[in-house]
């Protein structure tokens, strides 16, 4: 896969920046990017030998690229929805992509035939879609602003199950047998998916403001063991389902920039979180226009990117952790008056395997 770049300078965990902490690195730019803000990114699963990347956008489209070993991207196809696309996900065999939209529907894109079919319906925009592969069933999980979580086997127009949420769904993460859903009002609900989906626990974090993104982390045996939640206040909470020690659960600051003479901090929203599939280190990105790699076990920052002139709205790793994709788009955190149509949307691929290695490989 990609040749790794050199590691950036060491910085303390949670530290803010007064300037760029890493030299500008020439990452690989994805060709023919979306024409509006990028809302979702997802790499193809391990079932496919080649890497493919899909991106959903507020321009109502989902695009697919083939990623060559050289880092070059080849636009393969594009599908249109009847509203802005808020989320995308792959089926486990890599043959189909699900597209959740503000048109209150989820469509299934069959990549082989290049045809789409509606497979889910809500009463409000669909914020999240996740594919669940279990020993007993296979289904699509969708979360909506209509305050419901629905599960679909896609052979029926009606959901297998509907769960009422306390508020609008703002984000979700799935790693069988676990799902975590965040909603408006700072609600966080953990579901167990074994047998059939059912609520396991409602949890609280030490975050003071609205949750914005969530990702599930694994233990050394590759089993889901907890989750990370990012908020609009530039902080991330790391929480274990069954913490051996209460101190194992902690929060750290990120997506912050020191002001003049370190007299204040500019605080930015955490837009996305992703765990490395091999190292289990974690990436964050946000409205400050940077991405960061962190070692949660030794509580150290591994690398900070340069500061871009646009927010980073989404990020993800490919299935073997060699490639880190991130999207530059305006996220409207400063309102419409700061929107600059001259700034184009962009997606970049960063060779990340060495950058994301833990400092202390023996850390649990």
From TrEMBL:
Instruction: Kindly state a single biological-process term from the GO annotations of this entry.
Output: cell division
Q: Where in the cell is it found?
A: Cytoplasm; Nucleus
Q: Where are the WD repeats?
A: 31-68, 78-119, 119-162, 270-304
Any signal peptide, and if so, which residues?
A: none
Q: Does the keyword Repeat apply?
A: yes
The record's similarity note reads: Belongs to the WD repeat rae1 family.
What's the name of the protein? mRNA export factor-like
Taxonomy of origin reads: Eukaryota, Metazoa, Ecdysozoa, Arthropoda, Hexapoda
Q: Which gene encodes it?
A: LOC117654336
């Amino acid at each position: 896969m990609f040749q790794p770049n050199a590691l950036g300078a060491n910085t303390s965990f949670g530290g803010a920046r007064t300037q760029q902490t890493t030299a500008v690195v020439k990452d690989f730019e994805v060709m023919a990017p979306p024409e509006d803000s990028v809302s979702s990114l997802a790499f193809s699963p391990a079932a496919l030998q080649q890497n493919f990347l899909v991106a959903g956008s507020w321009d109502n489209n989902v695009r697919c690229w083939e990623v060559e070993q050289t880092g070059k991207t080849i636009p393969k196809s594009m599908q249109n929805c009847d509203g802005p696309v808020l989320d995308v996900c792959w089926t486990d065999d890599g043959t189909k992509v699900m597209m959740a939209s503000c048109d209150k529907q989820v469509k299934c894109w069959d990549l082989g035939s290049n045809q789409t079919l509606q497979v889910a319906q809500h009463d409000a925009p669909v914020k999240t879609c996740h594919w669940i592969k279990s020993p007993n069933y296979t289904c699509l999980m969708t979360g909506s602003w209509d305050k419901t979580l629905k599960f679909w086997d896609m052979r029926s127009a009606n959901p297998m199950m509907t769960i009422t949420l306390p508020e609008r769904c703002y984000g979700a993460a799935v790693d069988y047998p676990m799902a975590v859903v965040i909603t408006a009002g700072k609600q966080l609900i953990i579901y167990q998916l074994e047998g059939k989906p059912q609520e396991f626990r409602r949890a609280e974090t030490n975050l003071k403001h609205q949750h914005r993104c969530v990702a599930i982390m694994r233990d050394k045996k590759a089993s889901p063991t907890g989750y990370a939640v990012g908020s609009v206040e530039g902080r991330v909470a790391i929480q274990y389902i069954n913490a051996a020690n209460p101190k194992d659960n902690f929060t750290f600051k990120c997506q912050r920039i020191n002001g003049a003479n370190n007299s204040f901090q500019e605080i930015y929203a955490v837009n996305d979180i992703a765990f490395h599939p091999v190292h289990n280190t974690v990436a964050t990105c946000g409205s400050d226009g940077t991405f960061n790699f962190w070692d949660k076990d030794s509580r150290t920052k591994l690398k900070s990117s340069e500061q871009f002139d646009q927010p980073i709205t989404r990020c993800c790793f490919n299935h073997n952790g060699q490639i880190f994709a991130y999207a530059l788009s305006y996220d409207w955190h400063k309102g419409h008056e700061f929107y600059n149509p001259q700034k184009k949307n962009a997606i970049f691929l960063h060779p990340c395997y060495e950058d994301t290695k833990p400092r202390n490989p023996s850390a649990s």
